[in-house]
Amino acid sequence: MNPLIENFQSALEHSFIDQTTESHDLYKAKLLVNQDQSGRMVLNDLLDELATCNEFFFAVAFITESGLLALKTVLADLAKQNIHGRIVTSNYLYFNSPKMFKELLKLKNVDVRITAMDGFHAKGYSFVHDEYETMILGSSNLTIKALKVNCEWNLKLNSLANGELIQSMKQNFEQMWSLAEQLTTSWITKYQMGYKPILNVQKVDTMEEPSSQIEVGTILEEVEFATKPILPNEMQKNALAEIQKMRDLEKSKAMVISATGTGKTYLSAFDVKAYQPKRFLFIVHQEQILKKAKEQFIKILDDDENKFGILSGNSTITTEKYVFATIQTLSKDSTLQTFAKNTFDYILIDEVHHAGAKTYQKVIDYFEPDFLLGMTATPERTDGYNIYEMFDYNVAYEIRLQEALKENMLCPFHYFGITDIQIDGQTINDKSSFNQLISSQRIDYILEKIDYYGHCGEKVRGLIFCGTKKEAHELEQLFNQRGFKTKALTGDHKITERDEVITQLEAGQLDYIITVDIFNEGIDIPSVNQVVMLRKTESSIIFTQQLGRGLRKAKNKDFVTIIDFIGNYDNNYLIPIALTEDSSLSKNSLRKKTMATKYLQGMSTIIFDEITKNRIFQSIESSQLNNAKNYKEAYQNLKNRLGRIPSLVDFIDQHSVDPVIIARYKGNYPAFLNWMKEDTPILNRHENELLTFLSNELLNGKRNHELLLIERLMVNGTLERQEYQRELERLHYSFDEQTLKSVERILSLKFFTQKEREKYGELPVVILSDDIYSLETSMKESIQNNQWFKQCVLDIIRTSFKRSESYQLNEPLTYNEVYGRKDVCRLLNWENNETGTMYGYRIKYNTCPIFVNYHKDDAISNDVKYEDELIDQHTLLWYTRPKLNFSSKEVKEIMNYEESGLAIHVFVQKEVGGDPEFIYLGRAYPKIETAKELIKKDKNGKDQNIVSMEMTLEKAVPLETYDFIKQK
User: Fold this and answer.
1) Rounded CA gap, 435 and 781, in Å?
2) Which residues cross the membrane (predicted)?
3) Longest dimension (CA), the chain
């Protein structure tokens, strides 16, 4: 029987008859919902299908700009491959806006028609692949809510081309298509003239309910405040309660960490209103922030405007109750000395991460308020100053970007990482000349992309961040010559000039402000609906600040478009760090988050085009993430936050560096602390060796069996072997007799090479006698006599258990996670660490791990340069080592895998010379009928016998992993 038909039959049986039937994931019927157990959304499957299809058609009643925007990058990539699609939609209920229809016309590889069918309410998506076709049918329209957030049910079905269901759907679509009208500019003009929306599109796509009250953070700048009271949003309510708790505990200082755009100023105004100070002082580093803050406080406090004063430059105050001061003016002796130390009973420092400066310290040391509040979105410092200590480590409340997005506190954003232009065969990079940056060719490219990705609403109000003042001024001229209205703003402009230009942008008199860094923080322009980044990312903090300029909510603003032109820069790895708030310093973690962007909460999306994604991978690979400077900075930031020496588990709890990286850097964590010049208790030589063993071999959480046994022995002294088995069973850890023996060999150190045993002290950690486990004597004595050593061991155990949450411990190996060769030897229960002799594959103990280096170096030293290849998401083309044929013992063992029960496991590494870890692609099964005896040339040009065969992977390689591996 045709293997493809076999696969479909098993998939049908699995999906509709018996779910225990083994089947290829690729062909199974699936229910698609938003936020399933793996975090996937309907959008993920739609993007996956688009990225791999040869053609497609959609029949959807309702489409929003935001929903369409989420597909634009993959549609642009398809256009480069000359892959076309068709969409049938409608004017039903006037839901679809004229602007959305204009956006559809920008899709050069998509034909669109409008059906006049009465009551058209279809929601179907069809994709043609090489060997099969896919349908997604259900409840999801092409809106961002339906694709990411709403409770939706969609059935994903696969069919061969001749299947009745797919043919019926195609016939129905072709009938609709033939009767529908072509979408044209003239059709849109006519539609716009009679456009009378019955449904509120914004309500459907953002679920904003009408209210008789205003919740801060929704639409503040453009409502009639005289008629509606202003109330705190949910974040602010929670934060206010926590700040009050601090005061109830008689704390005189507190700090709030809140993402840009979440309403920190309004929050502080609400707190001041509750506190009712006799006099209040607001301190910040920019005069522009002062004026906006004063306006917001007046709205909340509802007090006489004459009680509010500004102390900045030439502005002075006398007896005003509420004083808003710049630090530059306030810190002058001539100003500061005019106030008594206890003048203000409540002082607020905004953007408090600047407070390490001498000017701030001078002011803070001078005043004696009853309560001091600090607010910031970015408390992390690179200069070593401890902002947390300034506030006695009293963090009243914290909400970061991801959580704020989840709570719908920020305007949803669609981030597009797109490759910058190539000029004379070279992509824009660090060495690009100024003339290249402002060339007409690049300007044309920029304008093409910002038009394609667009913006919310009828008129753009954009910010463009570029690299230099000279570039900003030149871009102003070039954009204006092309018909845009733009102004360049730099640090050379006065505050009054900046204010005037911002007012012009908000009034619609300007299209863009072109700037260099001065809008990184503190500037509030809620109407911004497009942010364009034309410079390399120097800092993840600055990147986030610039991104945040567009995240304020505003009336008639459903989303903001972020367009990042990514050149060939070494530090592109900072982009996923900024977007994901990943501080792990783990290259694997960053790769995974670049591969799959489903981590983003709410209605926002992050999409990289294919070239950019590969460029970021290259940047991650070549980056110096794991260096002393980064370790010191991360450690100091965590210590500053905690106000004490962190434990290893703190690094996980506080979302900091991967503790495995920290612990291994100097052998073990106490050694790292000594390197950081921390004063810690003394460990003897063997205690150091034991901690090095636990840190290097067991801390990673890939199997908790060994540390579980140590933990129980630390508590009970001894443990019967059967009792240990029952404990493994209770925790649903995978085990059998071979696993138990493996654990015993690991803890006796017999598993390791002689060199490793010497490194780890040679003595066993655990002893088994008469089926009873106990700790080795010196280990037991150290735990009893050295509290610091015991504390370090327990910390390793707790950290490993937390880290193991990323792994499925009911199986030896976790699909799509990474493993080194030594991990594989251990987890497949091999008697010894055979890393040094394993190389491409090895058959032992009825297991056969295969390690594939996917992209080989031309100078590879193997006799034959292997051509292993993922043919598709389910199939690996694999080659044996040289000098083998069908009669060779190991070839026979592999081809007779069914009879012997040989378990074949596939691990793939993208680049030779990268991190020594491989992505686990699961079990594999040889397709015997594809096996071939071949003759290949070795590096010396001599003929070598070799066997090739296709292997079917038990689970389909996730598309993001598949694309990552295949990209060159």
Assistant:
1) 71
2) none
3) 98
